[in-house]
Amino acid sequence: MRALPKERIAYAHIAGHYNEDKDLLVDTHGADVIDPVWKLLEKTYEYFDIFPTLLERDFNIPKFDKLLEEVGKIKSIQLAHSNKGVENV
Predict the structure, then answer these.
(1) How many structural domains compose the chain?
(2) Fewest CB atoms within 10 Å of the CB: 27, 51, 52, 89?
(3) Residue 1 located in a structural domain
(4) How many whole angstroms separate alpha carbon 38 and alpha carbon 42?
(5) Do the Cβ atoms of 31 and 16 come closer than 8 Å?
(6) Is the model's pLDDT at 76 over the cut of 80?
(7) In which band, very low, low, confident or very high, does the pLDDT at 83 lie, cut at 50, 70 and 90?
């Protein structure tokens, strides 16, 4: 990941997946985002700073409140990384 050129990152998407097989995950945009993906997003912000991030959900769309929770989680992770190194006054 560190080898990616930071200046080329315009945005990213985050989405759920389907377990096709024990060693094959298919990016379906049809399920909740799982913890390892959230951790990967955090790590990505650590390496590259914050950039626009889209929650992608193409089917199996949950109720609006659930979608807002996932969008809120993106925002929380972004806020946590925007405040790194900033002292509380």
Answers:
(1) 1
(2) 89
(3) no
(4) 6
(5) yes
(6) yes
(7) confident
Q: What's the sign of the alpha-carbon dihedral 35, 40, 45, 51?
A: negative
Residue 71 domain boundaries: 6-82
The whole-model pTM stands at 0.84
Q: Let me know if residue 88 belongs to a domain.
A: no
pLDDT at 85: 52
User: In whole angstroms, how far apart are CA 8 and each of 11, 43, 55, 78?
Assistant: 9, 17, 20, 19
The confidence score (pLDDT) of residue 70 equals 95
- In SS3 terms, 27-89 reads as ECCCCCCCHHHHHHHHHHHHHHCCCCEEECCCCCCCCHHHHHHHHHHHHHHHHHHHCCCCCCC
Contact between 53 and 74 under an 8 Å Cβ cutoff? The reply is yes
